[in-house]
Amino acid sequence: MTDSGFECSLCMKLAMSAQICEKCGFMYCKQCLLEIFGHNYECVQCQSKQFKPIEQSALQEAYEEILTKSQIILPPKIDKPPPEPPVVIEKQKLQTFLKENCINFDICKSNINPIFQNEQVCSLECLYFTKIIQLYEQQDFANIRKEIINLEKYQTLKNVQPIPQVGFSQYLNGNSIFTFNRCGPGIQIIQSTVILQEEEYTFKTATSSVGFQNGIHFWKIIPLAMTKNEMKIGVSTSDKYDLKTAFSDYNFGYAFYTVGQFRNGSNSNGFEYGVKFTNTGEVGVLLDMNRGVLAFSYNGNFLGKAIATEALKKGPIYPCVALLHQAGFEFQCGLPAPQNLLDQFLK
């Protein structure tokens, strides 16, 4: 990210082929707008569709100067390679494995990492797999969430980097484990609880940094009692957008808005869907990437298929929730889809 004042409001880097919103002045890379909105792009701040290239503004001269400087700054010539950055050195140390095979060697093809010598595994991912697969094989879904919380605490004690938990879908037949770990400003994430408390009335999104790649997925969103405003629950097929907005404002976002609507590509319009509620009950989210279908349930009652589209067949697809003003939820994942919902969903 730069501090030039000419940053794209989507990628937060120096805007290339810069386009300026004529209504609010926000600036964007032309390519970012095309990738996210197509040719019918709009401003994420004010939703205006009126843009002009920076060459038609009074900022052209200053922009060209900054663009030129960014292109002519070259690294100094040196006779020998610079030393490895500390982070790379740390990674090299962590990758010095023992001679013994990981207990999941048939799957991971790796040796034991000294950090996990007592557990006889090669990585935090293998440790998660070892703990959770036993519960899954025993159909003990009630304790899967507890084990995840214990492993998260263990991860902190070991001081190792988190792993992309969605990857377990290949072992759990679509019953993926994920975490909400990316969010707009003001949102707090504490293990399986996500909370927003602020004076503003602007939707902000919480999402996962890793998306689903294939299969059928089911998870639950449970509103907290402190919630004062309805939320938007669903998925996005892109992670290139401003988390200070609702994911369903974009064409790639699909949401059950709990005012009793379904939203896609709009912050003001949607069709009637589901039921209206604020801070009670629980929402089940059912995503079938085999057929490209998204559906929801409320308190175990099937609300019907919300949308079917080719866009939901190709990963990555990210679980998302948009919160407003004062709202929060708990999420549960790693769950099999209830059979009564599947029966209706697959009709």
UniProtKB/TrEMBL annotation:
Gene3D superfamilies: 2.60.120.920, Zinc/RING finger domain, C3HC4 (zinc finger). It comes from the Eukaryota. It holds the Pfam family SPRY. InterPro entries: B30.2/SPRY (IPR001870), B30.2/SPRY_sf (IPR043136), ConA-like_dom_sf (IPR013320), FBXO45-Fsn/SPSB_families (IPR050672), SPRY_dom (IPR003877), Znf_RING/FYVE/PHD (IPR013083). CDD domains: SPRY. Residues 146-340 form the B30.2/SPRY domain. PANTHER family: SPRY DOMAIN CONTAINING SOCS BOX PROTEIN, SPRY DOMAIN-CONTAINING SOCS BOX PROTEIN 3. This is B30.2/SPRY domain-containing protein. It comes from Paramecium tetraurelia.
